[in-house]
Fold these 2 entries.
Entry 1:
Amino acid sequence: MSLPTSGSGFPAQVFDDGDYERIDAGLADTDRLLADGYPGDAGTRQPVHTVYVPADRYSPSLAADWGQQALAAAAEAGGIQRLAELVGLAPELAAEVASRVEAKLREEPIEDLRIDFEDGYLAAAKTSDPNATEDAEAIRAADQVTAAVASGTATPFVGIRFKCLEETTRRRGLRTLELFVSRLVQQGGLPEGLVLTLPKVSTVDQVKAMVYAVERLESSLRLHPGRLGFEVQVETPQLIIGADGSHPVAQLPHQADGRITALHYGTYDYSASLQIAAAYQSMEHPAADFAKEVMQLAVAGTGIRLSDGSTNVLPVGDAAQREEAWKLHARLVRRSLERGYYQGWDLHAHQLPTRYIATYAFYREGLPKATERLRNYVQQTVGAVLDEPATARALAAFVLRGVQCGAVGADEVRASTGLSELDLTRLAHPRLAEQIPATTLAAPAAEPQGASR
């Protein structure tokens, strides 16, 4: 078939300016949705876990106390290296991880702490005036957080979980939220890593109500608009599949004005809602995996982080009970990491050693191949794996997470790849590239001719 050609020998142009403008106009809404609704990850640090404690048990020394308890439990089991081998690490990797885990438990045993005014908080109900007790406890919690920040003992991320927005607890939860945030502002300001957790969300309307609540707090307390974000705990089946057959959880990122920072899976409330027998309620139950896969799809590209739930099988009791619980916990942590859930919940100080053992092993095991592939990509060297920009982003994000949590040293990465932490951030999060000055990062490799995807 003979086609008309231009003077240069190329096929004659079909699309003119009018065609382009018509297509642009037809895709304007899509362009806005992709730009505003799917900005990608912020590139900031995500904690590897969240620890929650009843509000009446929180104090500025809690993190250090838990670290000492964790070290003592590991020592009683024969030391961190022996514990690492017990949960399945090869001796060489166990030795490599042990020193880093010990340092972590001494220096920063808890990354994210939630002061709990919901299911874990029972003290107020045992008093003659529960509302007055919780009022006082909310103010005390804010004062303790302020004291921890002032003394340098605050965890990097800290906040409260208040009661849910269902009718029976709505006003109590909002009152606690108001008292806690107002008192922090009154005492000098909000901590940088403040996190607010909204539990038992069932509908998009509850999230919209929470958006209204934090907007009112910001206005009243003269906070910068957008300062208050919040996490959503996914603990009800109604959020996964709504009454109309839709997935309400997928609507949340686009109905919350950018306020949602994370979705947290609630293992036991969700399992109980499905009538799963208590003995079989678990983070790895097929029903849990389905919910978490829907959550993962719902927030992909939105910048909202994900957290897995917890196991209530604790490393306490005799030696045999502790060892079995540690094995279970380490396996579940690793399982979550492999599935793209980089955060989970810990309920007891004795879970800290296996949280870090499993997490550090995950990153250190994958480090040699990840850095080799990154080096080949950046230096435009052909290796055994042909990586494209998408996989390079994933490799850089993997290494960056390892650096941020302490599993990997920034000096190790620079020695093996020539990349700094800033370079990793630029590679992992291209939309941030213009905001981050280039250091050693080279241009990405061009795709070889003939390569196909």
Entry 2:
Amino acid sequence: MSTVTALLARLATEVHGDVEALGARVLVEIDAGLPELGRDPRVRELLVATVQGSLEGALVVLTGRAQDDVPLPPVAGELARRLAQQGVPVTVVLRAYRLGQSVFQQELIGRIAGSGLGTTEVGDAVRALTAVAFGYVDRVSEEMVAVHQAERDGWVRRRDAARLAMVDAVLAGRGGTVTEVEAALGHPVAGEHLAAVLWVDPDAPDPGRALERAVADVGAALGCTRAPLVVAPDAVTSWAWYPGTGGPVTLPPGPVSVALGGPGRGLDGFRGAHRRARRVQEVVTAAAPAARLPVTTADDLGPLLLLDAGTLLADRVAEILGDLAIDDEQHARLRDTLAAYLRGGGSLVAAAGELHLHKNTVQYRLRRAEEVRGRPLGDDRLDVEVALLACRVLGATVLRPAD
């Protein structure tokens, strides 16, 4: 046995006789750096036992035992599970071990320095100690991270399943009073909330992460200071309720589509706003991919929410617009000009200002639109407005392919 190995084994035996005092010092450091770990009595009990067991394990390794032959303290896994259940990040667990490692190494380095060895041997002993300490802490940390993650994943699944069951009950008109629902969901439903449905293409990479980011981005755009209620009815869809009455939401194009159903108040508003968001999703899903926007609101669709977005609507659009419903750039310009004219209350000046065109150009395009349609606006002006809206929102779903 080398001089360094013999020294570390002897020091480990000495420290083992005073391991409780060393554990107390470790706990002082953890209490100072991570005060949140001392609030729960059961967590405190597990933490004390974990510190004691970890120190004893590290000292056994220093006596010459192989790392893999030294069992990890069973209580460490229980501590990791408990912290995961309380939502304590795994980084806190790792930080606690690093604090303990620091105290452990300081104690042993002090004893090595006072051992009477030469400078070279002291340096060798410190390096050997550091290797053992890091190796043991890494091994225990990996185990605790795995236990923490598994428990956290299971807890999140159970929580989400319970939330989804309650949300389904509320949407079906059950679930109890406002107080009972709020207690079960952990989310206020008495005030104003804005419902959203977010969904992603199943073929998109990492759809779960994409949905999480989109939920957060919508909340940021709305200026929410409180987290939304979010449930996942399937792997590619999220239902969300954001606090407040909402506002304009603009997101860059991405793999996630967002349907906003408008605000609602109380349980009835919780249900109604969600129904509107689901209806917006149905209409957007029926649209041609090229026509879809990242975010669509109920106000964007207007009367389209009342209509069937399938074949019946396409037939009706063709009946109302005639050849104006041809899907090409030329007829799209005519449709855009006619829509601007109608939005402006039949004002050429208003349409020209919106489109940044000369008034005469607008007038020419309007005459051309009537020629292509085959008849003037006449008495079906409202039908024309709805048909133009359908063309803008649904695109090729309701347009006729160009020859």
